[in-house]
Amino acid sequence: MKRSVQLLLALTAALTLAACSTTKPEEEQVDTSAQDAAAQAEAEALARQRAAEEAERQRIAALLDNNVIYFDFDDDSIRSEYVEVLEAHAKYAQNSGKSVTLEGHADERGTPEYNLALGERRAKSVAQLMRTYGVSDSNIDVISFGEESPANPGHTEAAWQENRRVEIKYQ
Amino acid sequence: MNYIFKTLAIISISLMALASKAEIQIYITEGRSDARPIAIVPFKFESESAVQGQPPFDFAKIIADDLRRSGKFNPTEISKLPQHPYSIDQVNLEQWRELGVDGVVYGTVSQTASGNYMVSYDLIDPFNDKAIFSADIEEGSYPLIPSSSHLMVLKTKVVDNDNFRWGAHIAADEIYEALTGERGAFATQIAYVEVNRNDPRPYQLFVADSDGFNAKRIFASRSPIMSPTWSPDSSQLSYVTFENGRSEIVIQDIASGQREIVASYKGFNSAPAWSPDGSKMVVVLSKDGNPELYLLELATKQLQRLTRHYAIDTEPSWAPDGKSLIFTSDRGGRPQIYRIRLADKKVDRVTFEGIHNAGAEFTPDGKSIVMVHQANGSYHIAAQDLATGQLTVLTKTTLDESLSIAPNGSMIIFSTVDGGQKVLSAVSMDGRFKARLPATVGEVKAPAWSPFIL
Questions:
Q1: pLDDT at position B51, please?
Q2: Phi, psi values for residue A160, rounded to 5°
Q3: Is residue B401 less than 8 Å (CB to CB) from chain A?
Q4: Domain stop point among B139, B160, B180
């Protein structure tokens, strides 16, 4: 009889102890995991956002890095491949408040004075596009160098292609 | 007249003179087979001074080179001359007739005690016994021997070391006029832009004698120089300068070096063209939104707008009578030559042949224009008769631009690309004579022939 009572007491004690010891940790685990999950989700979202912003920054930087627009022979229309670049420059100009100078050039074919006018036409084309993106006229300066300042002084088609251009510069 | 045969002779004209080295050399690339034979006898040298020197240059050779460069004459090789006379009584007309020359030039260079040179020279026509310059000869002052009735030119000049070559060019002009009836343009100068990319100031404006000698640097810049043009009295040059970051028009006095910026408006400032009377200039400004022609009164700097059109209007050139201008406009779609009357600003189109005509100049007689004409992707110099409208292409080079006409209308100098380099080239008004003028250093462009220099 004594032995069974002892066992019963021990068992009760053990159970009580077990009951005590397990109730609190269970509650904490549930709280932390919810918080952890939320925090983790937040962190992941933030990281994704930062990555996206960084990618966008790099995309804009790459566009802005591109500060020369090229043109077809005897033409001053802006090729579609440059519209994105010019949009990036326009936004940059607006946000930074900087003045932008557009330098227009032509290849050597034809007469120098007519090419001076052609260079200006090209720079004005770029200016017009930037204005549609909100850059104010007072922040744009247009200068033509005609055929006088070639990027490539050669006399080949390849050289001429490099010279038919507008260069975007900031003050 | 032998139109069919073209002698392709590449004659390098030696420019190794004693004291002066040319910046540009002249290579005849296409000569005329009907160039008139002429004999230029080496002049005799005499010296009165105690120290026997040598004249600084070969007077006769300068004359011979000038006449050869005109394309109209073929000076006889010295080794083939039958005699070397230096005065009229020594001339053996029979021998010269046998040689078959249109003229014989001989003379003397006498060094005076003061170090100057008295140069006397005659031009004789062995076949023609009409003394054309008899008015120059005082009665009884010249030996009346058979050869004197063949005299066409009889002159004496005093020159010094500095104007020795110039005196020879004047002599060449006198001889040229006596033989052709046309005024010579040897005593003239050419302005041009040289680009040397290794130089800290790569863009340089030069003025040289018409034979390339005595090149003098007028202006040097880190930034481009364009469109030099002479004042009618040849004392000033106007040109476009980018020295302040954008195009501006400047006038520079050649002798004093003084410079004045006469147009620096918003947009670009370019294409100065002096009026024949020297009081005005037409310039091209884009300050009012697009390139237009403006008349600039030089005394007051007042501007009068001449053209009103949204197209490009540029490259004005005055008619010799000062009453109208030709200019380039793409108002019809592509560049063509138009004419504007100053009295009423009326504009008419001049060129109808070819998809692109630009950079035109009037000939001195006002009867033709010379322009850059594009055909099949190539840019050639072409002349158009204003009365008939007939267009004649003069060159075979394909990147021609920036032409300038000699003041006697006989020759056109222009910029082109040859052998991978930008060089100057010359072509006679009839297209039959061609020469190439590369620079010794760098690339040359934007030539401007001076008026007659008195």
A1: 66
A2: -60, -35
A3: yes
A4: B180
- Please check whether residue B175 is in contact with residue B167, taking contact to mean a CB–CB distance below 8 angstroms: no
What domain count does chain B have?
A: 2
pLDDT score for B3: 43
Asked which of B162, B180, B198 is the last residue of a domain, the reply is: B180
pTM to 2 decimals? Answer: 0.87
Choose among B245, B291, B374: nearest Cβ to A117.
Answer: B291
Separation of alpha carbons B239 and A6, rounded Å: 121
Q: Is residue B9 scored above 60 in pLDDT?
A: no
pLDDT band at B398 (very low <50, low <70, confident <90, very high): very high
Say whether A132 sits in a helix, a strand or coil: helix
What is the complex's ipTM, to 2 decimals?
A: 0.89
The answer to whether residue B25 scores a pLDDT higher than 90 is no
- How far from the centroid of its chain's Cα atoms is residue A168's Cα? 18
- pLDDT band at B7, cuts 50/70/90? very low
Q: Residue type for B45, please? A: F
Q: What is the rounded CA–CA span in Å between residue B6 and residue B432?
A: 8
Distance from CA of B443 to the nearest CA of A (A): 11
With bands split at pLDDT 50, 70 and 90, how would you rate the model's confidence at A15? low
**Residue A59 lies in domain:** 1-65
- Provide the residue type at B192 as one letter: Y
A144·B335 Cβ contact <8 A: no
Best of B198, B312, B423 to mutate (most A CBs within 10 Å, chain A): B312
B314 touches chain A (CB under 8 A): yes
Q: Which of residues 82-111 of A touch B (CB under 8 A)?
A: 108-111
Q: Is B93 exposed, middle or buried (0-12, 13-18, 19+ CB in 10 A)?
A: middle
Taking CA atoms, what residue in B is nearest to A108? Answer: B399
The answer to whether residue B119 sits within a structural domain is yes
Joined together, the tokens standing for residue B134 give: 């008899």
Q: Which helix (H) or strand (E) holds A58?
A: helix A2-65
As a whole number, the mean pLDDT across chain B is 90
User: CA of A122: how far to CAs of A50, A146, B8, in Å?
Assistant: 38, 10, 43
B162 plus B193 within the same structural domain: no
Write the pLDDT tens digit of every residue in B308-338. 999 999 999 999 999 999 999 999 999 999 9
Span A79-100, mean pLDDT? 94
Q: Are the Cβ atoms of B271 and A142 closer than 8 angstroms?
A: no
Cβ–Cβ below 8 Å for A117 and B268 = yes
Same domain, B388 and B274: yes
